[in-house]
């Protein structure tokens, strides 16, 4: 995968600055940190093993403060486009009660995406995440976008990563972009009508090999072997175990996401009472997972189907 190279015809944002639209080549990899909502408009991407489906928003977070998320392009011949619809809005409202979609903003983002899609096989729409007390620490650049403040940084809660070895055409701030036509590779004319984006304003972190999560080839082989085994066997169970700090949680998320590409639901029995993935410490819990695990444990806490509170936790509760 090549590092993402930002050029003027690949990045744009809506007037509200709540959305940034990005075009990608199939072989590119976009690395970022923080929190953001992601919607695939065209093409496909993989995030920690999960193949994001076009149309619906995903809540994407850095795996932890010391790691970066990777969004990898997937080669495909499909040019199917998935704008925001009433189904997108209904799906969103189920889990984002306090942050309703503004369909005018979504339509503006879709218009920019259609322009960029003429030249790039993958088009992604990023939406800034609503600020709450729980995620305030991840909000890098101050307040949320405001219609009365043109200087607000787009997507303040998320940072793209600038790679030094990649050429960038957006090194200097630019004034608001006027409507103009540009020629695409096939000679057709493309109209831009979005805000000019200073990529440095949403890209201030330098890459570091320790911080970026890289899926080892052995993990990919093991996950593929698990999928093959489950496809031919009625015994669809696996156990993840290992010493402290070897990557059990990350590997479990990766395998769950790979399974969700094939199966609509994955049962997850969380037996790590010290640092559980889906519940509070001290609890054994069984969960039925239907959405990908795209962040640290606290971002996808869900009520357990079954749970057992350990004796020690109950004793501590009695002593308080």
Automatic annotation (TrEMBL):
InterPro entries: Clp1/Grc3 (IPR045116), CLP1_P (IPR032319), NOL9_N (IPR057573), P-loop_NTPase (IPR027417). It holds the Pfam family Cupin_NOL9. Residues 11-82 form the NOL9 N-terminal domain. It comes from the Eukaryota. The lineage of its organism: Eukaryota, Sar, Stramenopiles, Oomycota, Saprolegniomycetes. It comes from Aphanomyces astaci. This is Polynucleotide 5'-hydroxyl-kinase NOL9. PANTHER family: CLEAVAGE/POLYADENYLATION FACTOR IA SUBUNIT CLP1P (PTHR12755), POLYNUCLEOTIDE 5'-HYDROXYL-KINASE NOL9 (PTHR12755:SF3). GO terms for molecular function: ATP binding; polynucleotide 5'-hydroxyl-kinase activity.
């Amino acid at each position: 995968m090549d590092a993402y190279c930002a050029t003027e015809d690949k990045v744009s944002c809506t007037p509200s600055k709540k959305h940034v639209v990005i075009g990608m080549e199939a072989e590119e990899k976009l690395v970022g940190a923080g929190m953001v909502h992601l919607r695939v408009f065209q093409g496909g991407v993989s995030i920690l093993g999960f193949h994001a489906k076009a149309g619906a928003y995903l809540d994407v977070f850095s795996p932890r403060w010391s790691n970066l998320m990777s969004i990898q392009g997937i080669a495909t011949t499909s040019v199917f486009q998935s704008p925001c619809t009433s189904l997108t809005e209904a799906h969103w409202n189920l889990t984002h009660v306090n942050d309703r979609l503004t369909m005018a903003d979504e339509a503006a983002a879709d218009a920019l995406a259609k322009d960029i899609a003429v030249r790039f096989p993958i088009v992604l729409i990023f939406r800034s995440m609503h600020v709450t007390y729980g995620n305030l620490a991840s909000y890098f650049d101050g307040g949320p976008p405001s219609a009365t403040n043109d200087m607000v940084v787009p997507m303040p809660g998320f940072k793209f990563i600038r790679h030094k070895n990649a050429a960038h055409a957006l090194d200097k701030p630019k004034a608001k972009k006027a409507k103009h036509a540009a020629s695409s590779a096939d000679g057709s004319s493309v109209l831009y009508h979005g805000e000019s984006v200073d990529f440095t304003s949403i890209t201030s972190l330098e890459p570091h090999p320790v911080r970026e999560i890289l899926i080892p080839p052995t993990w990919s082989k093991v996950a593929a072997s698990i999928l093959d085994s489950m496809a031919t066997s009625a015994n669809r169970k696996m156990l993840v175990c290992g010493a402290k700090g070897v990557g059990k949680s990350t590997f479990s998320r990766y395998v769950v996401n790979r399974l969700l590409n094939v199966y609509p639901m994955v049962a997850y029995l969380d037996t790590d009472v010290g640092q559980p993935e889906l519940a509070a410490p001290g609890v054994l819990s069984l969960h039925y997972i239907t959405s990908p695990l795209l962040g640290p444990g606290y971002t996808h806490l869900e009520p357990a189907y079954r749970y057992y509170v350990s004796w020690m936790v109950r004793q501590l509760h009695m002593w308080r």
